[in-house]
Amino acid sequence: KVCLNISVGLALEELLVTAEKQDCLTIGIYESAKLLNADPDNVVLCVLAADNEDDVALQIHFTLLQSFCCDSGITILRVSGVQRLQQLLGAVDANRNQEEQGDLHCMLVTNPQADHCRLQEVGTYCQESRRLDQWVPELVLQER
């Protein structure tokens, strides 16, 4: 499979959609924490999503998750563009309230084969960012 040079944002979007279809995506802070505690070796990517940096409780959750992921050697990526994630993962439904839509603030990709090409591209971006002293790489997802 040839890895095409596409934008990292698009690679991440495709990776998340593929992982969800393959049932390899854990969504939600609580669900993610449970999985990290039970089976961290199967987690290949942790995506932390927030548009509002002022939410102190969310930032505390992120700090704990980041620390655990760093200790376990799990790649971490922070993204803004929660609405784009809702579009991608089908979480927006007018008949459901906010809590039932799913907590997209934390997502774990658990299958190394989820979409190898896209996972590799996202991982390379994260490595490059860390080499440039960005401890937790960040990415902005554009609404469409």
From TrEMBL:
It holds the Pfam family Ribosomal_L7Ae. This is Growth arrest and DNA damage inducible beta. Belongs to the GADD45 family. Residues 11-90 form the Ribosomal protein eL8/eL30/eS12/Gadd45 domain. It comes from the Eukaryota. InterPro entries: GADD45, Ribosomal_eL30-like_sf, Ribosomal_eL8/eL30/eS12/Gad45. GO terms for cellular component: cytoplasm; nucleus. One of its GO terms (biological process) is regulation of cell cycle.
